[in-house]
Amino acid sequence: MIDTRRDTINGILAIFCAGMLFAMSFVATPAKFMALGVPIADLIAVGRVTFRASMCTESVFLFIMVCLARRGDQRVLFGCAAILATQYFALLPALNERSLAVMRGAVLSPSPLHPIWIAFDVFRLGLYLAYGVRLQGLFQGRRT
Q1: Dihedral, CA of residue 28, residue 123, residue 69 and residue 10, to nearest 10
Q2: Hey, is 72 helix, strand or coil?
Q3: Number of CB atoms found within 10 A of residue 62's CB
């Protein structure tokens, strides 16, 4: 028997994670750099804290979703976890070094790290949305 409560909870959590990811990565981050009169070092310091906090929060929700998901559905969530882990362990250390250098006043040449990070965020966002919409049956009225 299918436990629709678990699917409903997971669908809601997936849509929530998509919203949180979109808000943090594509609204709050660009908006903070539009603030007038705030030193770039302060903006970067705030960004470092908020990204770690949002990644930690997302990881907790992702863990809950994996625990609630049916076996076949876990693949999508493991994909999200793999992307998040790649960002945290492979990209974040290099971005951290760059941000510390900029905070010290260094002028750095453009790097492919931010576009790669953004591409991973877009992919994760798509996975969360597709998973959440499928579980909620928003396009078909029912889950197939």
Answers
A1: 30
A2: helix
A3: 21
